[in-house]
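Q: Hi! First time doing this. I have a protein sequence and I read that you can turn it into a structure. Is that right? Here it is:
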Amino acid sequence: MNQREIREFRSNLRQFERVTNLHLKTCCAGVTLAQCLVLLEVEGNERPTVGRLALRLRLDNSTLTRTLDGLTTRGLVERIRDDGDRRVVRIELTSDGEDVCRHIHRDNDAHYRRVFRKIPPSRRATVLRSFELLVQALMECEAESSADTQTNATSIRTSDPGAVGRTSP
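A: Yes, that's right. Below is the predicted 3D structure, encoded as structure tokens:
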């Protein structure tokens, strides 16, 4: 792609982010956006571990822990010790958490139904496939960047004799 096309894409992406973020602020059934994302991830994965949630949501453990604290306080999720390994904590939706997820789905489904009515029916499959390809490419680039960052951090630690026992930030 040439620079003009990249800039046009970036401009459209910024507009997409703005309108999507505006919608996300109103569709989360009274929970924060971070809590909304955690609830939906827990709903989509049967009793995930905290570590698995952190990986799936690309959050550090302390951020996820604070978000889970808020959800637990509100009675939307429960932390449950794993029967096989008491060190492992699993997250489960409560019935109130399930209600909030249903509300989030209902509002979002209605919103995106309205959005797709603005797209000619003959082009909807193309939009869905294109969006899927874009998300996949973004995720692959993020994974490559993460791998590069980890490789660089390992290289720095192994080349610094004073770094023994230290971890990178």
